[in-house]
Amino acid sequence: MSFDGQLPPKTRLLRAAAELLANSGGAAVSTRQITQLAGVTAPTLYHHFGDKEGLFDAVVAAGFEEYVAGERDFAPSGHPLEDIRRMWDNHVQFGLNQPELYLVMFGNIRPESRPAIVADAEALMEEMLNKAAVAGQLNVQPREAARSILAANVGVTLMLIAEPATERNLELSTMTRDAMIFAVSADQASGTPEDSGKSSVVVAAIALNAALQASHSDQLSSSELKLFLEWLHRISNSSTS
Amino acid sequence: MSFDGQLPPKTRLLRAAAELLANSGGAAVSTRQITQLAGVTAPTLYHHFGDKEGLFDAVVAAGFEEYVAGERDFAPSGHPLEDIRRMWDNHVQFGLNQPELYLVMFGNIRPESRPAIVADAEALMEEMLNKAAVAGQLNVQPREAARSILAANVGVTLMLIAEPATERNLELSTMTRDAMIFAVSADQASGTPEDSGKSSVVVAAIALNAALQASHSDQLSSSELKLFLEWLHRISNSSTS
DNA sequence: TAGCACCTATAGCAACGCTATATGAAGTGC
DNA sequence: GCACTTCATATAGCGTTGCTATAGGTGCTA
């Protein structure tokens, strides 16, 4: 099979890279393999994508579209925290369905250089968590919650990918998922206010904060709003005891 | 600087690889760099370590000794769950102190091939969680808890490594850590028995299970013990509702 | 027809992981 | 003292990698 059709070389390169990546079985994919499958020579690749990583980034971007589409399709259920669960599961499933692509996206960590896609995924989850915050269901700032949940989500997915497919136990995922969501949710047993349950004023502050930032309210001047948000922020972060 | 001293070439190779890995700043480390710094030619490397990955594995093994030493030094505080917290923090700190080494150890994920070190780290954490289970402080099986906590621990550490050093916020770590530990611990607010709080009989069963496996009790025959453990296991996993 | 972007191909560089082969050193039996 | 095996290191080079200096072709506007 090859992509020698009438498609433009750029598209052929993208498809060839995606296909080789998906079927490489963990082995490295070389530019020569890609260009040969695409029916193109090396300089074409570097003309369109700069370097190998640029091509992979483009493949990743396409993969991320798919990922985001999956995340958004399941979104509006009315119960934000339930949507977060589905986002989590969709994330894991995406990783297990296309492990090579996932590893390029989330597994290629290098010091001090954050993959752009991580920020995108965080933003996506934060957006969802904001709805939970507005509904008063969140215990911590949406951004912190998103970072924390996504970190655990990536860790679990990487672990599952590394396991032999026959031994994969999705209970690891559901257990970690519920632990993280429960930890950031406001409806914990409110019987022990000193340890883990935050007081309702904190929850209210977080909800108000999220609502304010979402609505771009004009009822306060910008300087007033700034100070107000700073107070809220202080309250929200106070009882970390 | 070079390692041309009177040390044997094998040692010089290990030290050269470790040093280059620590100072590479994320860039790849080549065998030629290593052999040159060690004052040795290529075949010597392959004679002693088989291939590049073999050498890295050896470096990782040495790094893991250090990691384990750090984990064990802080261990016996009498409060197992507090020890788990310290294990978590030590894990993160190890990753941030030696990011390159950590990435070779935990970041080099490939499908269906689990790094041996992950299993070791899991065993280490499971061992610690067993103490918590014996003390009746655990909500789930120690093995499942260990896998879950370690997955989150690795995910958080990778995220922190990927961030610019100036932006690193350790709150991500402590927050995720406490979420995970709280989720597996038995002393959650027992006011809501239907949702997250497990009934005390389950906690007792898990504690008993851990105690039995630790003590190699002779008061039951092996077949009796086997059946008994099976029942315990069934009870422990029952109320996942 | 001339000029000008844009795109692609030829050919090849430097660096990579790794190895076939040979040489030196150290111990062992006679 | 001498052949013999064994282990450890070196010389030289193979095949592949990511990437590029240079040049040629194509289609557009003038």
In short:
The structure is a homodimer of 241-residue chains. Chain A contains 11 helices and no strands. At the A-B interface, helix 6, helix 8 and helix 9 of A face helix 6, helix 8 and helix 9 of B.
Structural summary, described in words:
The structure is a homodimer of 241-residue chains. Chain A is mainly alpha-helical and 241 residues long. Chain A has two domains: 9-50, Orthogonal Bundle (Arc Repressor Mutant, subunit A), CATH 1.10.10.60; 66-240, no CATH class. The first copy, chain A, has helices at 9-23, 31-38, 42-49, 52-73, 80-97, 99-107, 116-134, 142-162, 171-184, 200-215, 222-236. The first copy, chain A, is elongated and about 60 Å long. The termini of chain A are far apart. At the A-B interface, helix 6, helix 8 and helix 9 of A face helix 6, helix 8 and helix 9 of B. The first copy, chain A, binds a DNA duplex (30 and 30 nucleotides) through helix 3.
